Each structure stands twice: as structure tokens, then as C-alpha cells.
Amino acid sequence: TGLARSSCPIHLIKPKLKKASQYSVVGFGFALSAALFYSLFGIPGKLVMESMDSVWPYFMVMGQGTLVGALACYFIIGKDRGWTKVSRKDHLLAMLAGLLWVVAFASLASSLKLLGMATAWPIANLNTIVTVVYSSLVLKEISIRQQRTKMFAGLIVGVMGIILLVLART
């Protein structure tokens, strides 16, 4: 929790941002950066897993890389120890998020091994649709009544995409 909180790159530029519109532009930049790096990290993983019988050795070594990367960010970007001010509940929720990520990544790694990147990656990234529904129902970030048609259309397009991927694979 502390590593993620105090090593977030936004801490480097946040004091320089003056308007909400600047936050949006920078936020979109970080989101596109995340999309790029998420897509790139799958490539070396797929290459390594092709020579392995199981995904678990890759999974463990990638975990080590994640820890080294988080520590590097922590020491390079900031050592503000802000994590000491976080409540116990927030620490536990962050740990739960990490545990859920491990389960998700284990599922992704297994599907990459079995289906290949071109099929498994888009299917695994349907989490966007699930996240929108979850954000609407639980977090109340989007009004379901106002956005029902768009959400339903997105779900249909996602399911059609899965069907096309499966058909392309067979």
C-alpha cells in the first residue's frame, strides 16, 4: 500500500496542475500510458511461457519484477511515508485489491498459455464492461437510468467480440 501510494507519478506533477481541465488531460495521458504498458508486458510473458510447461514459474518471477519496480518507483519518485497516515481499513482494502489482482493475473497467465495473446488478452480486458457495471451499481459513479442504452450496447459489442474471437480461433 505504501509503495503504491507514495510512488504514484502524479505526485511529481500534481502541485503544478492548476485547473480541473489540466487534471483531465493528465489523467487521460496516464490512462493511455497504462494501456500501452499493460499491452506491452504481455509480450515478454507470452514469449517466456511458450517454453514453460506451467505458468507458475513465470508468475513468481513476474511478482519479483513487480516488487523491484514498485521499490524503484518508491525510491525514485518519493519517500513521503504517506502510507503511515492511511487507516487500517484502507490498508486491508488495498491488500484485498492486491490479492484479487493475483487471482486475475493467474487467470490471465493461464489463458495466455492456453489460448494465445490475440484471443486471451481482449477477452480478459472485458473487465472494462464489468467495471462500468460495478461502478454504476455499487459506487454510483454513472447513472444506470440515463446510460442504460449505451451500457447495453457496450455489453452486446463485447459479447460479439468474444464470439468472433472464438470463431477466429477454431
Write the layout of secondary structure elements.
Elements: H1 2-6, H2 10-13, H3 20-49, H4 56-77, H5 88-115, H6 117-124, H7 127-137, H8 144-169
Q: How would you portray this structure in words?
A:
- The structure is a single chain.
- The chain has 170 residues and is mainly α.
- The protein has 2 domains: 2-116, no CATH class; 126-170.
- The protein has 8 helices and no strands.
- Helix 5 runs antiparallel to helix 6 (117-124) and helix 7 packs antiparallel against helix 8.
- The protein is globular.
- The N and C termini lie far apart (43 Å).
* Cα gyration radius (Å): 19 Å
Strand content: under 5%
Q: Helix- and strand-based class?
A: mainly alpha
What's the β-strand tally? 0
Terminal-residue CA separation: 43 Å
Bulk shape: globular
Q: Could you report the average pLDDT, rounded to the nearest whole number? A: 76
Q: How is the main sheet built?
A: none
So how many helices?
8
Protein name: EamA domain-containing protein
Keywords: Membrane, Transmembrane, Transmembrane helix
GO cellular component, one term: membrane
Organism: marine sediment metagenome
